[in-house]
């Protein structure tokens, strides 16, 4: 353990020292006079985390996707506005274009994809409908795949010809365009008994703009231009090298020194320093990742009984007062250097989000008033109480996270002002985010307020259902299944969500989601603090990158160029 | 001697078994677990988690998991990483050459510099050279490597631009010996400086003790050359504490330097261990820890054997 502690110490020192001492005089960026993109060249992009695997079926971290998506493509993808777009399919199947057909009884559906003609894998083998079917087969067969969500709703896949795929669903499944975002080559992997032992996990073969040519563990990943890429004159770069660096701070030092061209995942606190450097440009965009305060509506226990309300948080007035006394904008400005957006609802961006659903703003005077009216009156120690119960709550998050710990301090002070006591009780993320089986406090319900973040999928159905429906409250009866850690249960909300999931018409679904989000916000089961930004940084001579709320920065890599 | 070594080797077997069992139990007791990474993924359902737990064998009783690991380990199958799904042997194989390259250089540089300095300071006790070295070595081994490493990066990497900021070689360029050596300078300097501090202190102390012995006076009285007196009679006897320290450092050739590798972005065993520890990747951790404990046991044995060569009075039976 002392070794680990030493490492933590060293890393925080790296940040201190490198952050403070990096020279501000980096070589100037050149070539500003040229017009149009530059062709050729090598770009070095730093990652401070090493992808565990490049196999899209096994990926769990964003950095895995960041790298594998330059080589691996799917039938559909998502554009920066959160709309589905076709990639290897000619169009996104819908009722309107005839690609989506629901059976007469409304219980099953068929989705037909017409594939783009003439697409080749980067080893020149033709891409066909058999590859789509193979990808599904593999996902259902391999026990080590990360998730089968959605794919397990498929009954079978027909391939009437090389360019047509008919996916037969056992039930209507509205999130179908999310599936088949990564396709695997049948000609390479057919008959491989265990994919995890195949070289594919390190050097995936795809149809994307680049092909991974080398993966040197702990050091770098090299990708070379895919000469078979279906888009003419793309990609612009000849080579991209992902350099594994020990920390963000090391990446920043190398970016300033010009040793690398770009870096992934900059911290909010690092942006002001980078923006001062004229040779560096910062790319920042809001994402769906939502930092929240999650209130336990049930009386804490191990396991908590969802039928017994929380003695303090069970009262809507207390929850509302906590919301009114949470200065979202101040947290963003002070702790995140303005690089975030105040949270509005469980969904803030994407097609399913509703712009008119929002939470009440910061108003501590009103918070006091709400508590007074509800009968929570200040005791001798300044902490409010009602019927002999003190308004004292535990506030928990992942320990060692500076922004979260600072936010906790700020909240303790703010809430103290309105007469609610918060005691900080943090634990390491492996414990805090642990499972029911590991006896972790969140799934077990042994907490008051939890601060953490999660990211909804573009199709939010599963995400919302497992978190906010009555049946998804983890308890002994269901062996801890479900992620409704709030212990939130509202039949109206359940119904709206079920309806949204059962409808295929996007416009109608959007209305049901709005209904659901409003009920959830009215209950104030959560304070949506902020939506994180996705922040990457580049040397000023790099061009062509586009930030997307829904995709990693490498989604635009075919258009990147480096001017000299 | 042969029987002594054989007996020591036999004794090592139950010791190693005990170590692996203790390590396994400690790793399993650490909160969190290898599936924590999946938890954060919104598309991973509880059924997915149960399936993965089963696929990785994590749903079985811990004694069974241990016995299975042990059985496979002994037949050369070290299992698969739970994070990368690659064979443990391959992942160690990817990193080991880099660590041996770094730590081997450090080891050589440390010994080559520390031994002459240590001997010289003892021979010239209380000279200005001795005072200088004493001061410098105290500073060297009191310096934490992470601080020294960062300092060297800032001064020689960022400010003077003499050496690269990290990595094993310049990316995107062809293999070049000079480039490789330039990347080696700062991490080796960081680790060697601290090591030299230790070794010089040990050697100086034991040399001073030896020089004061009666047989040294006898050797000098016989009219032997100073070089032979010091080299053959004094150093060989004084080297015993140094051998102990150097032998116990040998396993570092395999384990690597956790902190220094992290600071310099060196793709070695130290970083592999760190990554595996943060992900609760048991198979990797078990592989590294078992080899490391084996090496510690062997290094101890090696030290004992070398004592016998250095000091024929030491006999084992």
Task: Write a concise keyword list for the protein shown above.
heterodimer; A: 564 residues; alpha+beta; 11-stranded mixed beta sheet; 4-stranded antiparallel beta sheet; 15 helices; globular; B: 317 residues; mainly alpha; 14 helices; flat
Structure, explained:
With 564 residues, chain A is of the alpha+beta class. Helices cover 26% and strands 22% of the residues of chain A. Chain A contains 15 helices and 24 strands. Chain A has helices at 2-21, 62-68, 129-141, 186-189, 248-256, 271-276, 316-324, 328-335, 364-373, 402-417, 429-432, 441-444, 461-468, 491-502, 506-523; strands spanning 42-47, 76-78, 84-86, 100-102, 109-114, 154-161, 164-169, 210-216, 220-225, 239-244, 262-263, 280-295, 298-299, 305-309, 340-342, 377-378, 384-386, 389-390, 392-396, 421-424, 449-454, 526-539, 542-543, 561-562. In chain A, strands 1, 8, 9, 10, 11, 12, 15, 19, 20, 21 and 22 form an eleven-stranded mixed beta sheet that branches. A four-stranded antiparallel beta sheet of chain A has the order 4-5-7-6, with helices on one face. A three-stranded antiparallel beta sheet of chain A has the order 16-17-18, with no helix packed on it. In chain A, strand 6 and strand 7 form a beta hairpin. Chain A is globular. Mean pLDDT of chain A is 90; it is low at 1-34. Chain B starts with a helix and ends in a 7-residue tail after the last helix. Chain B has helices at residues 2-29, 36-39, 46-55, 62-74, 88-123, 128-142, 145-159, 177-211, 214-221, 226-249, 252-255, 258-263, 269-278, 282-310. Chain B is 75% helix and 0% strand. In chain B, 37% of the residues are buried. Chain B is built from 14 helices and no strands. Chains A and B meet through helix 1, strand 10, helix 5, helix 11 and helix 13 of A and helix 2, helix 3, helix 5, helix 7 and helix 12 of B.
């Amino acid at each position: 353990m002392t070794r680990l502690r030493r490492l933590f110490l060293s890393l925080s020192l790296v940040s201190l020292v490198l952050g403070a001492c990096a020279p501000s005089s980096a070589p100037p960026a050149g070539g500003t006079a040229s017009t149009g993109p530059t062709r050729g060249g090598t770009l070095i992009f730093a990652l401070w985390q090493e992808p565990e695997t490049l196999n899209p079926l096994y990926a769990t971290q964003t950095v895995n996707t960041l790298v594998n998506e330059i080589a691996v493509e799917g039938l559909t993808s998502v554009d920066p506005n959160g709309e589905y777009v076709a990639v290897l399919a000619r169009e996104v199947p819908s009722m309107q274009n005839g690609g989506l057909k629901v059976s007469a009884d409304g219980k099953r559906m068929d989705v037909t994809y017409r594939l783009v003609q003439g697409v080749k894998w980067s080893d020149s083998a033709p891409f066909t409908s058999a590859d789509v079917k193979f990808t599904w087969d593999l996902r259902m067969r391999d026990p080590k795949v990360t998730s089968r969500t959605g794919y397990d709703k498929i009954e079978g896949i027909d391939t009437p010809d090389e360019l047509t795929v008919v996916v037969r669903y056992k039930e209507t499944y509205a999130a179908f365009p999310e599936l088949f975002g990564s396709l695997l080559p049948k000609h390479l992997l057919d008959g491989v008994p265990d994919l995890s032992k195949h070289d594919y996990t390190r050097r995936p073969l795809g149809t994307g703009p680049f092909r991974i040519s080398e993966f040197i563990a702990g050091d770098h990943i090299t990708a070379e231009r895919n000469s078979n890429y279906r888009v003419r004159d793309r990609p612009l770069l000849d080579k991209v090298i992902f350099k594994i660096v020990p920390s963000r701070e090391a990446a920043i030092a190398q970016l300033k020194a010009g040793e690398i061209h770009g870096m992934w995942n900059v911290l909010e606190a690092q942006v002001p320093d980078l923006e001062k450097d004229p040779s560096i440009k910062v790319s920042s965009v809001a994402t769906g990742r939502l930092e929240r305060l999650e209130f336990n509506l049930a009386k804490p226990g191990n396991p908590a009984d969802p039928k017994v309300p929380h003695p303090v948080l069970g009262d809507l007035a207390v929850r509302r007062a906590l919301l009114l006394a949470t200065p979202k904008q101040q947290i963003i400005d002070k702790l995140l250097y303005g690089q975030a957006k105040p949270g509005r609802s469980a969904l803030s961006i994407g097609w399913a989000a509703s712009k008119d659903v929002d939470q009440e703003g910061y108003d501590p005077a009103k918070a006091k008033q709400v508590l007074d009216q509800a009968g929570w009156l200040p005791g001798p120690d300044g902490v409010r109480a009602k019927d002999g119960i003190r308004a004292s709550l535990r506030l928990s998050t992942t320990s060692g996270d500076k922004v979260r710990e600072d936010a906790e301090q700020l909240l303790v002070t703010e809430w103290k002002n309105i007469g609610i006591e918060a005691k900080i009780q943090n634990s390491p993320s492996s414990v805090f985010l642990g499972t029911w089986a590991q006896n972790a406090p969140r799934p077990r319900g042994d907490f008051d307020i939890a601060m953490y973040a999660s990211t909804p999928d573009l199709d939010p159905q599963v995400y919302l259902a497992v978190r906010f429906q009555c049946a998804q409250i983890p308890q002994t009866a269901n062996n801890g299944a479900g992620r409704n850690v709030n212990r939130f249960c509202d039949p109206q909300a359940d119904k709206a969500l079920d309806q949204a999931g059962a409808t295929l018409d996007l416009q109608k679904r959007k209305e049901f989601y709005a209904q659901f989000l409003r009920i959830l916000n009215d209950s104030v089961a959560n304070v949506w603090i902020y939506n994180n930004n996705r922040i990457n940084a580049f040397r000023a001579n790099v061009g062509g990158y586009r930030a997307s709320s829904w995709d990693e920065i490498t989604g635009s890599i075919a258009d990147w160029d480096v001017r000299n | 001697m042969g029987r002594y070594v054989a007996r020591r080797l036999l004794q090592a077997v139950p010791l190693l078994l005990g170590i692996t069992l203790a390590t396994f139990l400690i790793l399993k007791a650490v909160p969190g677990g290898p599936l924590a990474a999946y938890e954060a993924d919104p598309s991973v359902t509880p059924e997915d988690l149960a399936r993965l737990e089963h696929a990785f064998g994590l749903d079985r009783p811990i004694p069974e998991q241990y016995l299975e690991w042990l059985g496979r380990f002994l037949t050369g199958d070290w299992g698969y990483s739970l994070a990368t799904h690659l064979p443990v042997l391959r992942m160690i194989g990817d990193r080991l050459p880099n660590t041996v390259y770094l730590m081997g250089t450090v080891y050589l540089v440390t010994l080559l510099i520390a031994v002459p300095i240590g001997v010289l300071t003892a021979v010239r006790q209380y000279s200005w050279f001795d005072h200088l070295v004493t001061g410098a070595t105290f500073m060297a081994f009191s310096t934490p490597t992470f601080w020294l490493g960062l300092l060297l990066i800032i001064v020689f990497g960022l400010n003077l631009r003499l050496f690269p900021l990290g990595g094993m070689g310049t990316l995107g360029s062809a293999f070049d010996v000079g480039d490789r050596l330039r990347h080696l300078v700062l991490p080796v300097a960081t680790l060697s400086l601290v090591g030299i501090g230790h070794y010089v202190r040990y050697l100086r102390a034991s040399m001073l003790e030896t020089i004061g012995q009666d047989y040294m006076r006898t050797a000098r009285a016989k009219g032997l050359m100073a070089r032979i007196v010091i080299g053959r009679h004094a150093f060989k006897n004084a080297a015993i504490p140094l051998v102990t320290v150097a032998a116990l450092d040998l396993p570092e050739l395999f384990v690597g330097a956790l902190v220094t590798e992290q600071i310099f972005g060196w793709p070695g065993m130290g970083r592999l261990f760190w990554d595996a520890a943060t992900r609760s990747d048991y198979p990797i951790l078990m592989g590294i820890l078992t080899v490391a404990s084996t090496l510690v046991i062997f290094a101890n044995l090696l030290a004992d054997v070398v004592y016998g060569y250095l000091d024929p009075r030491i006999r084992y039976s």
